[in-house]
Design a protein that fits this description.
Blueprint: E1 8-12, H1 16-19, H2 23-31, E2 35-40, E3 53-58, E4 67-68, E5 71-72, E6 75-78, E7 83-87, H3 101-113, H4 122-127, H5 129-139, H6 146-150, E8 156-157, H7 161-164, H8 206-217, E9 228-230, E10 241-243
Parallel strand pairs: 1-2, 2-3
Antiparallel strand pairs: 4-5, 6-7, 7-8, 9-10
Length: 244
């Protein structure tokens, strides 16, 4: 995209601009596309970084019921522990006109390829997601008996050779480690450096809590106080306050 070799970009959920490691380059690359399409459940920053033409296609969220001719549909999700399980929405959709991600993709494919020009049964996939999982198990190792196993309580775990067999698919057959120099960002006077974390089944460790308290004390605030912060970045105009 950066080099102008991609004309159309389609994002299936997520916030691509925010998730990519180089935000500035990603924004420039998206703006070079002739068409950018965002299939999304909610608005995010990526929607305002567009190509020459842009489409935002709202879709069903995972908590909304997805009713198809074959009955209520379920998608599959993988958690941070490599467990795959079913997810079925039960809430009434926000609009009767909302389509699922699967439906949008299948209909786009049929419109672009035509029924006669495609060997993929898009209409069948759209009506019953089990048929998609049947195809997945044919080509991806670890998904054998996909539909049966995913309906077991708790789903199933994907294979992980380094953990399961101590097998590493490297040139040496061993786990390879690399060492990289640490970079310490410079924090100007009067600014706070904040970090977000994602953990699994953990409470906030004392060291993290102590870091927060220490940062608060530099602003003359008690550990239980709300700290007003300001930012001069593009997302928050200068002088705009938020509470941390």
């Amino acid at each position: 995209m950066r080099d102008g070799q991609v004309r159309v970009f389609v994002a299936l959920g997520g916030n691509f601009v925010a998730a990519a490691p180089d935000t500035d380059l990603t924004e420039q690359a998206l703006k070079r596309c002739r068409l950018t399409v965002q299939i999304s459940t909610k608005l995010n920053r990526s929607h305002v970084i567009a190509g020459e033409q842009a489409l935002i296609l709202p879709c069903l969220g995972r908590t909304e019921a997805d009713l198809r001719p074959a009955g209520p549909q379920s998608v599959t999700v993988e958690d941070s522990m490599s467990k795959v399980h079913l997810s079925r929405g039960r809430l009434k959709p926000a609009s009767e006109h909302l389509l699922s991600e699967v439906t949008i993709i299948c209909r786009r494919a049929r419109a672009a390829l035509g029924e006669a020009g495609s060997q993929v049964p898009w209409e069948n996939f759209e009506s019953d997601y089990d048929r998609i999982r049947d195809r997945i198990e044919r080509v991806i190792p670890g998904f054998e008996d996909f539909n049966a196993r995913v309906r077991q309580p708790g789903g199933f775990a994907l294979p992980h050779p380094p953990c399961d067999e101590r097998r590493f698919t490297t040139s040496t057959g061993l786990a390879n480690f690399t060492a990289n120099p640490l970079e310490s960002p410079h924090v100007p006077e009067g600014r706070l450096l904040l970090q977000t974390l994602r953990s699994h089944d953990r409470t906030t460790p004392p060291s993290t809590a102590w870091t927060i308290v220490t940062a608060a004390s530099t602003r003359g605030a008690a550990s239980s106080s709300c700290i007003p912060t300001t930012s001069a970045t593009e997302a928050w105009p200068t002088g705009t306050s938020s509470t941390s």
